[in-house]
Amino acid sequence: MIVSEQHEPELYALVQERNLARQYDLLTNCVEIGLKQGPLSFDKYVLWALNHVAVANISQLGGRFREQPIYVGKHKPPHFKEVPDQMDRMISTIHEHWYTWSETALAAYCLWRMLWIHPFVEGNGRTARAACYYILCTKSGALLPGDKIVPERIRESRTPYYAALEAADRAWDQGHLDFSDLEAYLASLLQKQLSEA
User: Fold this and answer.
1) Does this model's pTM top 0.85?
2) What is the 3-state secondary structure (H, E, C) of 11-28?
């Protein structure tokens, strides 16, 4: 059972908002588990669950990696056959750098890399922002306080977000791993969240 944005835009928007609320509840559970079990609890199953909830009743392919080509503006994500390996590499990088990178660096890397890979048919942005926040919280050692959390702030401030993602893409195309603009952007949003808590 799915709702089409084209045919029922109001109901689609309502379902999407409810899904975001459910995703946050699930994310809270995941953070609590991650705080107890450590960084290795971040895996593809967490991402599948977060995606499934984000796109429930919007897409029938939620909670599993895409098996079809997908295009995102000017960006052409990797072929779908590469997605599982690319995601394993992303998760491995996060695990390997858990104790050496800051929380904002890990979160920025996760956010950018997931959006670069675009592993799902639908809900990539919502899932990547949830994963980013999961990392911010678990690396910081607590479910962070604040009424308006970083993913919501990203949704309200998209122009610098897109610019930072594009900067990371350009660096990658030139053979460099540099997501510093995105890290600075996330750090500013996190600071606002915590200062308003």
Assistant:
1) yes
2) HHHHHHHHHHHHHHHHHH
The 3 state secondary structure assigned to the chain is: CCCCCCCCHHHHHHHHHHHHHHHHHHHHHHHHHHHHHCHHHCCHHHHHHHHHHHCCCCCCCCCCCCCCCCCECCECCCCHHHHHHHHHHHHHHHHHCCCCCCHHHHHHHHHHHHHHHCCCCCCHHHHHHHHHHHHHHHHHCCCCCCCCCHHHHHHHCHHHHHHHHHHHHHHHHCCCCCCHHHHHHHHHHHHHHHHCC
* 69: its two tokens: 């080509």
Chain segment 17-44, per-residue pLDDT in tens: 999 999 999 999 999 999 999 999 999 9
Q: What is the model's pLDDT at position 74?
A: 84
Measured CA to CA, the distance from residue 46 to residue 72 in angstroms comes to 24
Return the pLDDT at 197.
80
pLDDT in tens, 126-139: 999 999 999 999 99
What is the CATH T-level fold of the domain 9-195, as seen in this structure? Fic-like fold (1.10.3290)
Interior/surface letters 131-163, b for 16+ CB within 10 angstroms, e for the rest: bbbbbbbbbbeebbebeebbbbbbeeeeeebee
**Res 5: pLDDT:** 87
Give residue limits of the domains in the chain. Answer: 9-195
| Residue 6: per-residue pLDDT | 86
